[in-house]
Amino acid sequence: xxxxxxxxxxxxxxxxxxxQKQEVPRMLLMDMDMQVQATRAVNDMYNFKFEKAENEFxxxxxxxxxxxxxxxLLGLSxxxxxxxxxxxxxxxxxxYAYMDTSIILAExxxxxxxxxxxxxxxxxxxxxxxxxxxxxxxxxxxxAVNARESLSYLDKSKGYEELxxxxxxxxxxxxxxxxxxxxxxxALKTILWLFPKGDKVQGIKQLQEVSNNAFYTRxxxxxxLMRIYSEENQPxxxxxLARYLHETxxxxxxxxxYHARLAFMQGRIDEVEEVSKSILEKLDRGMPGYEAxxxxxxxxxLGYVYTNTNPDVEKAKSYYKRAVVYSEQSKAYxxxxxxxxxxxxxxxxxxxxxxxxxxxxxxxxxxxxEKKTDHYKEAKEYMSRHRERKRRKxxxx
Length: 397
What we know:
Blueprint: H1 5-14, H2 32-46, H3 50-63, H4 68-82, H5 92-112, H6 117-136, H7 140-151, H8 165-184, H9 189-192, H10 200-213, H11 218-231, H12 235-248, H13 253-266, H14 269-284, H15 292-309, H16 313-329, H17 336-351, H18 355-368, H19 374-396
């Protein structure tokens, strides 16, 4: 799980909105009628039916014009448009605008309602999401500012986790990532000693509880569990959760891509073939979230299938070439799928004795691969072997 250290720190801060115990006012966050009304819209959002979801969220705006929840949901919708390709910046402006509006309304609620616990939840979450995106954009100053703002609400809801699993979500992320960060980024140990200790095992248990019982944070908890299981070498659990999320939200490009990836790692070839073809078909139709990154994954998997499991050399070449194109579209020049596709094409054309095509792909591989890698060594060996073969041929002539 390659998460930038600042992003993780923001999660540590953003996810735990804690406060001094006080008389708890009625919270829209826990209102069952609201949850019933929101169910279809939230599911539509996670299924990438953004227009349908946002129409409903805007109706919530009209019904609750002074509450941060509708604006936060609209911001979350923009966030999930970004998730499949984090480098895509076209949704940034609307994302920030909705999160800023949610913050303004939550701050007003916090001031006017005796440091309202629900307001703390939205302030911490909105600042956290903003900080996370700023860090992805490498705007470290803004990321740090949002981190400090989120930090200011760190202890605002402590002791209220029993009221709703929504509040438990923050503690779960904190417990896991507080220990994960120094394990993966030892240089940060001197900074993190200021934070209370975490508990990765407890964090996973809490995420499991949230994923079973929460409403607004259920799918977010499942998303993190899926990635955590992958990181913690629990591939079966990760695969099962990825498959469940894909089946529950079949048009969520990120979940479908993750399902294909984990099925591939499990060697479930028939499943890989089916899901990968589905990804490419949706990409060709221009469905939301299906773009070059998903195309790179799916095309490589299908190239592998038709090379190794269900041999069909023409299909294999076609899919590997698509993987190369999608990789270059997204400038993923260091991607293993890109380099692997180049190498596979070089081998195929070498077996066909098509020197011109083999040289073409191996030359790109030489240009793109790191010199110490097996891919680079393979390309260099082929080019050397070809030069020697050509020299001998010229000598015989």
